[in-house]
Design brief:
Blueprint (H helix, E strand, L loop, with lengths): L10 E6 L9 H7 L4 H4 L2 E6 L10 E3 L10 E5 L21 E4 L6 E3 L5 E3 L2 E6 L4 E7 L5 E3 L2 E3 L2 E2 L3 E7 L3 E3 L2 E3 L6 E11 L2 E3 L6 E11 L2 E3 L21 E2 L17 E3 L4 E4 L32
Parallel strand pairs: 1-2, 2-4, 3-6, 4-7, 5-8, 6-9, 7-10, 8-11, 8-12, 9-13, 10-14, 11-15, 13-16, 14-16, 15-17, 16-18, 17-19, 19-20
Antiparallel strand pairs: 21-22
């Protein structure tokens, strides 16, 4: 099995959660690990525990020296698919490490190359005139994997989804953001096995560079006049599905109706009876840019 969950070389693991963990504030860990990780030959990892129902916290991650072997990761503790797992189950109500953020900022702004955010459950509700995003991953080679972001709204401004610039967004879902779900903003953004559903303007928004979307699904992203997939450069994209006519690349599934397990309760796993996208995905286990064969739940894709 080739997991989409990235691990670092020589990981130094710290813990985050309630009293008794190494850290109770994300920014404190960021400051403590803001080092030359390449020279130290260590990857700094923050493993989060669901000690509380939710956390109201945020951080900017930038300044450490990294490469593709030594970098920083934030993820739930435990092993996905086992009883030790502290992550979500692919739905907003299925437990896991939940950041329910009201702070007027992005949840995580990753300006640092190669950093990775994995398998967190995120909701953001602001009431300011600012335009915010849930995660900014623009450091080059940074990744957002297994994240579920939902109901990210701003009463007086806007709250957008996840921005990817020259990096990877994989096995991630964005539901009901004020504007778009996942934005590519420069370089080459690899967006694999991601769902954007019921966001106000666009599901997948192309703003620059090249968006390589594979096995992505979008539907209901037009209440504000947008598209499931905003027009743009989607060179290399394949096997995408949309509720409108915008799915890009080769072998698209357009104008589809999707059957989910229980969409009224935010369970957007495809039902086995679905005829819109189920079984139509491409095999990415030997993909040249990001090879893997698991899904948001850590299960192997057949």
């Amino acid at each position: 099995m080739a997991s989409s969950r990235i691990v670092g070389t020589n990981e130094n693991i710290s813990t985050y959660g309630g009293g008794g963990r190494d850290y109770t504030v994300l920014g404190t860990w960021e400051s403590a690990t803001d080092n030359d990780l390449v020279t130290l030959q260590v990857s700094e990892v923050l493993e989060c525990y669901a000690d509380s129902v939710s956390y109201d916290d945020e951080m900017s991650m930038g300044g450490a020296t990294t490469d593709t072997s030594y970098f920083r990761i934030i993820r739930p503790a435990g092993t996905i698919g086992t009883g030790s797992w502290e992550g979500h189950d692919g739905t907003p109500s299925g437990g896991g490490v939940f950041f329910d953020v009201t702070i007027d900022n992005e949840f995580i702004d990753m300006s640092e190359a190669n950093s990775s955010i994995q398998d967190l459950l995120i909701r953001m509700t602001n009431a300011t005139t600012n335009n915010r995003m849930t995660i900014i991953a623009d450091g080059g080679g940074s990744s957002v994997i297994g994240v579920l972001a939902y109901d990210c709204t701003n009463a007086d401004g806007t709250h957008r989804g996840i921005r990817n610039e020259d990096g990877y967004t994989v096995n991630t879902m964005v539901l009901r953001c004020d504007q778009w779900g996942i934005q590519s903003n420069g370089g080459t953004a690899y967006i694999y096995n991601c769902n954007c559903i019921d966001n106000t303007t666009d599901g997948f928004l192309h703003s620059g560079g090249t968006s390589v979307c594979k096995n992505c699904l979008a539907t209901g992203n037009d209440t504000g006049g947008g598209d499931d997939f905003n027009p743009g450069t989607y060179t290399g994209s394949t096997n995408n599905s949309s509720g409108d006519a915008t799915a890009p690349g080769t072998s698209p599934r357009i104008n589809q109706t999707f059957t989910f397990v229980d969409d009224s309760n935010d369970d957007y796993h495809l039902d086995p009876t679905d005829a819109g996208a189920h079984t139509f995905g491409a095999d990415l286990s030997a993909d040249g840019a990001f090879a893997f064969d698991d899904d948001i739940d850590g299960d192997t894709r057949s």
